[in-house]
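## retry 2 of 3
previous attempt timed out at serialization; input unchanged, resubmitting
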Amino acid sequence: MPEHPHFAQQLLTWFDQHGRHDLPWQLDPTPYRVWVSEIMLQQTQVATVIPYFERFMQRFPDVEALASAETDQVLHLWTGLGYYARARNLHKAAKTVVENHAGEFPNTVEALSELDGIGRSTAGAITAISMGVRAAILDGNVKRVLARYHCIGGWPEQSSTKKELWSICESLTPTERVADYTQAIMDLGATVCKRSKPACDACPFESDCAANQQGRIAEFPGRKPRKAIPTKSVAMFILQNDAGEVLLEKRPAEGIWGSLYSLPESADAESPPDWGKAAEKGRPTATLDVVRHSFSHYHLDITPVLFEADRKNEVAETDRWLWYSLDHSLEVGLAAPVKKLLSKLPRIS
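## retry succeeded, writing output
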Protein backbone atom coordinates (compact mmCIF):
# COMPACT_ATOMS: atom_id res chain seq x y z
CA MET A 1 0.00 0.00 0.00
CA PRO A 2 1.52 3.41 -1.00
CA GLU A 3 2.60 5.85 1.69
CA HIS A 4 0.63 9.08 2.14
CA PRO A 5 2.95 11.32 4.16
CA HIS A 6 0.91 14.47 3.58
CA PHE A 7 -2.47 13.01 4.53
CA ALA A 8 -2.61 14.61 7.98
CA GLN A 9 -1.49 18.03 6.75
CA GLN A 10 -4.02 18.04 3.90
CA LEU A 11 -6.76 17.06 6.33
CA LEU A 12 -5.79 19.71 8.89
CA THR A 13 -5.66 22.42 6.22
CA TRP A 14 -9.20 21.45 5.20
CA PHE A 15 -10.32 21.33 8.84
CA ASP A 16 -9.03 24.82 9.61
CA GLN A 17 -11.29 26.23 6.91
CA HIS A 18 -14.24 23.84 6.77
CA GLY A 19 -14.30 21.78 9.98
CA ARG A 20 -16.66 22.13 12.91
CA HIS A 21 -15.14 24.23 15.70
CA ASP A 22 -18.10 25.22 17.87
CA LEU A 23 -19.67 21.94 18.96
CA PRO A 24 -20.57 22.10 22.68
CA TRP A 25 -17.97 19.54 23.73
CA GLN A 26 -15.25 21.38 21.77
CA LEU A 27 -15.69 24.59 23.76
CA ASP A 28 -14.34 23.05 26.94
CA PRO A 29 -12.86 19.67 25.94
CA THR A 30 -12.29 18.13 29.35
CA PRO A 31 -11.97 14.34 29.51
CA TYR A 32 -15.42 14.13 31.12
CA ARG A 33 -17.19 16.23 28.48
CA VAL A 34 -15.43 14.52 25.59
CA TRP A 35 -16.23 11.10 27.06
CA VAL A 36 -19.94 11.86 27.44
CA SER A 37 -20.11 13.28 23.92
CA GLU A 38 -18.34 10.28 22.40
CA ILE A 39 -20.70 7.84 24.11
CA MET A 40 -23.74 9.83 22.99
CA LEU A 41 -22.41 10.03 19.42
CA GLN A 42 -22.21 6.25 19.09
CA GLN A 43 -24.96 5.30 16.62
CA THR A 44 -26.39 8.84 16.88
CA GLN A 45 -25.96 11.96 14.74
CA VAL A 46 -24.47 15.21 16.03
CA ALA A 47 -27.65 17.25 15.53
CA THR A 48 -29.60 14.79 17.69
CA VAL A 49 -26.92 14.63 20.38
CA ILE A 50 -26.38 18.37 20.97
CA PRO A 51 -29.55 19.12 23.01
CA TYR A 52 -29.15 15.88 25.00
CA PHE A 53 -25.52 16.71 25.73
CA GLU A 54 -26.36 20.23 26.90
CA ARG A 55 -29.13 19.02 29.22
CA PHE A 56 -26.87 16.27 30.54
CA MET A 57 -24.05 18.72 31.30
CA GLN A 58 -26.42 21.11 33.01
CA ARG A 59 -27.64 18.33 35.30
CA PHE A 60 -24.34 16.45 35.69
CA PRO A 61 -21.55 19.02 35.14
CA ASP A 62 -18.76 16.69 36.27
CA VAL A 63 -18.01 13.03 36.84
CA GLU A 64 -18.70 13.29 40.57
CA ALA A 65 -22.22 14.58 39.93
CA LEU A 66 -22.88 11.74 37.49
CA ALA A 67 -21.45 9.10 39.81
CA SER A 68 -23.68 10.21 42.68
CA ALA A 69 -26.87 10.30 40.59
CA GLU A 70 -29.63 7.71 40.70
CA THR A 71 -29.83 5.39 37.71
CA ASP A 72 -33.38 6.57 37.00
CA GLN A 73 -32.18 10.17 36.76
CA VAL A 74 -29.51 9.21 34.23
CA LEU A 75 -31.94 7.17 32.14
CA HIS A 76 -34.50 9.99 32.30
CA LEU A 77 -32.05 12.36 30.59
CA TRP A 78 -31.18 9.63 28.06
CA THR A 79 -34.80 8.90 27.10
CA GLY A 80 -35.10 9.18 23.32
CA LEU A 81 -31.42 8.63 22.51
CA GLY A 82 -31.78 4.85 22.38
CA TYR A 83 -29.17 2.16 22.97
CA TYR A 84 -29.70 2.53 26.71
CA ALA A 85 -26.84 0.24 27.64
CA ARG A 86 -24.69 3.27 26.82
CA ALA A 87 -26.29 5.23 29.66
CA ARG A 88 -26.00 2.38 32.14
CA ASN A 89 -22.33 1.87 31.26
CA LEU A 90 -21.71 5.62 31.45
CA HIS A 91 -23.08 5.62 34.98
CA LYS A 92 -20.99 2.59 35.99
CA ALA A 93 -17.83 4.07 34.52
CA ALA A 94 -18.40 7.37 36.33
CA LYS A 95 -18.58 5.52 39.64
CA THR A 96 -15.37 3.66 38.80
CA VAL A 97 -13.53 6.89 37.94
CA VAL A 98 -14.61 8.45 41.24
CA GLU A 99 -14.04 5.40 43.42
CA ASN A 100 -10.88 3.98 41.84
CA HIS A 101 -9.22 6.98 40.18
CA ALA A 102 -10.05 9.83 42.58
CA GLY A 103 -12.26 11.45 39.94
CA GLU A 104 -9.46 11.72 37.36
CA PHE A 105 -9.75 9.93 34.03
CA PRO A 106 -6.87 7.59 33.14
CA ASN A 107 -4.61 9.08 30.47
CA THR A 108 -3.89 5.99 28.39
CA VAL A 109 -6.01 4.14 25.85
CA GLU A 110 -5.38 0.86 27.66
CA ALA A 111 -6.56 2.12 31.06
CA LEU A 112 -9.58 3.94 29.64
CA SER A 113 -10.60 0.81 27.74
CA GLU A 114 -11.03 -0.99 31.05
CA LEU A 115 -13.96 1.27 31.97
CA ASP A 116 -17.50 0.11 31.19
CA GLY A 117 -18.66 1.05 27.71
CA ILE A 118 -15.32 2.40 26.46
CA GLY A 119 -13.71 0.59 23.56
CA ARG A 120 -10.44 1.21 21.79
CA SER A 121 -11.75 3.92 19.46
CA THR A 122 -13.64 5.83 22.15
CA ALA A 123 -10.60 5.67 24.41
CA GLY A 124 -8.49 7.02 21.57
CA ALA A 125 -10.87 9.92 21.01
CA ILE A 126 -10.90 10.85 24.71
CA THR A 127 -7.11 10.83 25.05
CA ALA A 128 -6.49 12.59 21.73
CA ILE A 129 -9.12 15.32 22.00
CA SER A 130 -8.97 16.10 25.72
CA MET A 131 -5.35 15.27 26.55
CA GLY A 132 -3.48 15.75 23.29
CA VAL A 133 -2.09 12.21 23.48
CA ARG A 134 -1.36 10.60 20.12
CA ALA A 135 -4.03 7.92 19.76
CA ALA A 136 -5.88 6.62 16.73
CA ILE A 137 -9.64 6.34 16.39
CA LEU A 138 -11.75 4.16 14.12
CA ASP A 139 -15.40 5.11 14.35
CA GLY A 140 -17.91 4.70 11.52
CA ASN A 141 -16.92 7.95 9.82
CA VAL A 142 -13.22 7.10 9.85
CA LYS A 143 -13.85 3.59 8.53
CA ARG A 144 -15.76 5.05 5.59
CA VAL A 145 -13.08 7.65 4.77
CA LEU A 146 -10.21 5.16 4.90
CA ALA A 147 -12.06 2.36 3.12
CA ARG A 148 -12.71 4.69 0.18
CA TYR A 149 -9.32 6.38 0.24
CA HIS A 150 -7.54 3.02 0.01
CA CYS A 151 -10.27 0.90 -1.66
CA ILE A 152 -10.42 -1.46 1.31
CA GLY A 153 -13.04 -4.08 0.50
CA GLY A 154 -15.15 -6.07 2.91
CA TRP A 155 -17.51 -5.14 5.73
CA PRO A 156 -15.50 -2.97 8.19
CA GLU A 157 -16.59 -5.06 11.18
CA GLN A 158 -15.07 -8.23 9.76
CA SER A 159 -11.92 -8.98 11.72
CA SER A 160 -9.50 -8.93 8.76
CA THR A 161 -10.93 -5.71 7.34
CA LYS A 162 -11.03 -4.03 10.73
CA LYS A 163 -7.43 -5.04 11.46
CA GLU A 164 -6.30 -3.52 8.17
CA LEU A 165 -8.19 -0.28 8.85
CA TRP A 166 -6.69 -0.02 12.35
CA SER A 167 -3.22 -0.44 10.89
CA ILE A 168 -3.85 2.36 8.41
CA CYS A 169 -5.32 4.81 10.90
CA GLU A 170 -2.48 4.14 13.35
CA SER A 171 0.05 4.98 10.64
CA LEU A 172 -1.76 8.16 9.54
CA THR A 173 -2.37 9.70 12.97
CA PRO A 174 0.14 12.55 13.48
CA THR A 175 2.00 13.53 16.65
CA GLU A 176 1.21 17.24 16.24
CA ARG A 177 -2.30 18.71 16.51
CA VAL A 178 -3.68 15.28 17.27
CA ALA A 179 -6.86 16.70 18.83
CA ASP A 180 -7.65 18.70 15.70
CA TYR A 181 -6.74 15.76 13.46
CA THR A 182 -9.09 13.47 15.38
CA GLN A 183 -11.98 15.91 15.06
CA ALA A 184 -11.07 16.58 11.43
CA ILE A 185 -11.24 13.00 10.22
CA MET A 186 -14.59 12.52 11.98
CA ASP A 187 -15.87 15.75 10.43
CA LEU A 188 -14.73 14.74 6.97
CA GLY A 189 -16.70 11.51 7.19
CA ALA A 190 -19.77 13.16 8.69
CA THR A 191 -20.02 16.20 6.41
CA VAL A 192 -18.21 15.33 3.14
CA CYS A 193 -17.47 11.62 2.77
CA LYS A 194 -21.04 10.73 3.68
CA ARG A 195 -22.57 7.28 3.31
CA SER A 196 -24.83 8.43 0.49
CA LYS A 197 -24.26 11.32 -1.89
CA PRO A 198 -20.70 12.13 -0.75
CA ALA A 199 -19.48 15.58 -1.75
CA CYS A 200 -16.29 14.42 -3.45
CA ASP A 201 -15.73 17.78 -5.13
CA ALA A 202 -15.43 19.35 -1.65
CA CYS A 203 -13.01 16.72 -0.34
CA PRO A 204 -9.32 17.56 0.18
CA PHE A 205 -8.50 14.06 -1.10
CA GLU A 206 -10.55 14.22 -4.29
CA SER A 207 -7.54 13.54 -6.48
CA ASP A 208 -5.88 11.06 -4.07
CA CYS A 209 -8.87 8.88 -3.15
CA ALA A 210 -8.55 5.52 -4.88
CA ALA A 211 -12.29 4.83 -4.90
CA ASN A 212 -13.04 8.24 -6.41
CA GLN A 213 -10.36 7.87 -9.06
CA GLN A 214 -11.72 4.45 -10.02
CA GLY A 215 -15.35 5.59 -9.97
CA ARG A 216 -16.16 3.06 -7.25
CA ILE A 217 -17.24 5.24 -4.33
CA ALA A 218 -20.53 3.37 -3.89
CA GLU A 219 -18.66 0.07 -3.36
CA PHE A 220 -16.93 1.22 -0.18
CA PRO A 221 -17.14 0.48 2.61
CA GLY A 222 -18.46 -3.03 2.07
CA ARG A 223 -21.94 -3.73 3.38
CA LYS A 224 -22.88 -6.01 6.21
CA PRO A 225 -24.11 -9.39 4.94
CA ARG A 226 -27.88 -9.24 4.90
CA LYS A 227 -30.11 -11.59 6.80
CA ALA A 228 -33.85 -11.62 7.37
CA ILE A 229 -35.02 -9.61 10.37
CA PRO A 230 -37.70 -11.45 12.34
CA THR A 231 -40.83 -9.84 13.75
CA LYS A 232 -42.03 -10.38 17.30
CA SER A 233 -45.27 -9.20 18.85
CA VAL A 234 -46.41 -8.15 22.31
CA ALA A 235 -49.40 -6.49 23.93
CA MET A 236 -48.88 -3.49 26.22
CA PHE A 237 -51.58 -2.52 28.70
CA ILE A 238 -52.36 1.11 29.51
CA LEU A 239 -53.98 1.47 32.92
CA GLN A 240 -54.85 5.08 33.61
CA ASN A 241 -56.44 6.24 36.86
CA ASP A 242 -58.75 9.18 37.55
CA ALA A 243 -55.76 11.45 38.14
CA GLY A 244 -54.44 10.61 34.68
CA GLU A 245 -51.54 8.57 36.01
CA VAL A 246 -50.47 5.44 34.13
CA LEU A 247 -49.18 2.26 35.70
CA LEU A 248 -45.60 1.49 34.63
CA GLU A 249 -43.33 -1.45 35.39
CA LYS A 250 -39.57 -1.25 35.76
CA ARG A 251 -37.79 -3.69 33.49
CA PRO A 252 -34.89 -5.89 34.61
CA ALA A 253 -31.42 -4.33 34.48
CA GLU A 254 -30.29 -6.63 31.67
CA GLY A 255 -31.88 -7.07 28.27
CA ILE A 256 -33.97 -4.80 26.06
CA TRP A 257 -34.81 -1.45 27.74
CA GLY A 258 -32.83 -2.52 30.80
CA SER A 259 -33.80 -0.53 33.95
CA LEU A 260 -36.28 1.59 31.98
CA TYR A 261 -39.95 1.89 32.85
CA SER A 262 -42.40 0.33 30.43
CA LEU A 263 -46.07 -0.59 30.23
CA PRO A 264 -47.13 -3.97 31.66
CA GLU A 265 -47.08 -6.47 28.82
CA SER A 266 -48.04 -9.97 27.82
CA ALA A 267 -47.93 -12.19 24.76
CA ASP A 268 -51.37 -11.12 23.49
CA ALA A 269 -54.18 -8.64 24.11
CA GLU A 270 -56.47 -11.31 25.56
CA SER A 271 -54.14 -12.18 28.41
CA PRO A 272 -53.39 -9.21 30.66
CA PRO A 273 -50.40 -9.64 32.96
CA ASP A 274 -50.56 -9.77 36.72
CA TRP A 275 -49.82 -6.31 38.05
CA GLY A 276 -50.06 -7.57 41.58
CA LYS A 277 -51.21 -5.18 44.26
CA ALA A 278 -50.70 -2.07 42.15
CA ALA A 279 -54.21 -2.40 40.67
CA GLU A 280 -57.07 -4.86 40.75
CA LYS A 281 -57.97 -6.89 37.69
CA GLY A 282 -60.41 -5.07 35.42
CA ARG A 283 -61.45 -5.04 31.80
CA PRO A 284 -60.12 -3.82 28.45
CA THR A 285 -61.89 -0.77 27.03
CA ALA A 286 -60.18 -0.39 23.66
CA THR A 287 -57.45 -1.89 21.49
CA LEU A 288 -55.38 0.64 19.59
CA ASP A 289 -53.53 0.37 16.28
CA VAL A 290 -50.38 -1.69 16.29
CA VAL A 291 -47.17 0.30 16.78
CA ARG A 292 -43.95 -1.08 15.28
CA HIS A 293 -40.63 -0.47 17.02
CA SER A 294 -37.54 -1.69 15.21
CA PHE A 295 -34.33 -2.84 16.84
CA SER A 296 -31.14 -3.67 14.96
CA HIS A 297 -31.95 -7.39 15.01
CA TYR A 298 -35.76 -7.60 15.00
CA HIS A 299 -39.03 -5.70 14.66
CA LEU A 300 -41.41 -5.52 17.62
CA ASP A 301 -45.12 -5.07 16.86
CA ILE A 302 -46.87 -3.62 19.91
CA THR A 303 -50.64 -3.87 20.41
CA PRO A 304 -51.63 -1.18 22.95
CA VAL A 305 -54.67 -2.05 25.06
CA LEU A 306 -56.49 0.55 27.12
CA PHE A 307 -57.51 -1.12 30.36
CA GLU A 308 -59.84 -0.11 33.14
CA ALA A 309 -58.80 -1.45 36.52
CA ASP A 310 -61.44 -2.21 39.11
CA ARG A 311 -59.45 -0.32 41.69
CA LYS A 312 -56.18 1.59 41.83
CA ASN A 313 -54.10 0.88 44.87
CA GLU A 314 -51.67 3.47 46.14
CA VAL A 315 -48.10 2.32 45.58
CA ALA A 316 -44.89 4.09 46.42
CA GLU A 317 -42.16 4.43 43.81
CA THR A 318 -41.11 0.84 44.36
CA ASP A 319 -38.46 -1.19 42.63
CA ARG A 320 -41.10 -2.52 40.23
CA TRP A 321 -44.38 -0.58 39.97
CA LEU A 322 -44.97 3.14 39.51
CA TRP A 323 -48.03 5.29 38.90
CA TYR A 324 -46.57 7.77 36.40
CA SER A 325 -47.93 11.28 35.96
CA LEU A 326 -48.19 12.49 32.37
CA ASP A 327 -46.74 15.86 33.36
CA HIS A 328 -43.39 14.01 33.41
CA SER A 329 -42.62 15.36 36.88
CA LEU A 330 -40.97 12.07 37.85
CA GLU A 331 -37.44 11.62 36.54
CA VAL A 332 -37.40 8.09 35.18
CA GLY A 333 -36.21 6.57 31.94
CA LEU A 334 -38.96 5.51 29.54
CA ALA A 335 -38.77 2.96 26.73
CA ALA A 336 -39.09 4.85 23.42
CA PRO A 337 -42.40 3.32 22.23
CA VAL A 338 -43.88 3.83 25.70
CA LYS A 339 -42.99 7.52 25.59
CA LYS A 340 -44.65 7.69 22.18
CA LEU A 341 -47.81 5.97 23.43
CA LEU A 342 -48.02 8.17 26.52
CA SER A 343 -47.75 11.28 24.40
CA LYS A 344 -50.98 10.23 22.64
CA LEU A 345 -52.98 9.54 25.78
CA PRO A 346 -54.60 12.99 26.13
CA ARG A 347 -56.16 12.43 22.70
CA ILE A 348 -57.21 8.81 23.15
CA SER A 349 -58.18 8.59 26.82
